[in-house]
Amino acid sequence: MDLDEYQRGALRTAAPRDKRNELLHLVLGLVGESGEIAEKFKKWVRDLDSDESRIDRADIAKELGDVLWYVAVLADYLDLSLDDIAAANLAKLASRQGRGVLGGSGDNR
């Protein structure tokens, strides 16, 4: 499955674009799902002494799937292709690596 195919599939379960406050719903959903991943890792640090063998990978995979759904639907809402976003991101990172600024800070480096 490629990213645009996933994006089309995600849209089958998305609310219509013209639903009131749908853009805000998508942004807050993405933040919320990302926060759920952070929360699980916080508990992993607190309760499991950061033991990597005790990460519930299946549970994290479910949460990452939720993040991916929100990214896909939000991108579509903004008329963006996930394939294009992924390709541009890899090109940006390769450029930074080639110029020796991968570890720096700031968007325009």
UniProtKB/TrEMBL annotation:
Residue ranges occupied by any NTP pyrophosphohydrolase MazG-like domain in the UniProt entry: 25-97
Domain of life according to the entry: Bacteria
Taxonomy of the source species: Bacteria, Bacillati, Actinomycetota, Actinomycetes, Micromonosporales
Family matches, as Gene3D superfamilies: MazG-like
Pfam families, A to Z: MazG
Alphabetical list of InterPro entries matching this protein: dCTP_Pyrophosphatase, MazG-like_dom, MazG-related_GP37
Descriptive protein name: Nucleoside triphosphate pyrophosphohydrolase family protein
